[in-house]
Amino acid sequence: MTVCEDCIHYAYDEEYDDYVCEQDLDEDEYAALMERRTTACPFYRPGNSDYYLAGRQ
Question: Can you give the residue ranges of every domain in the chain?
Answer without folding.
Answer: 3-56
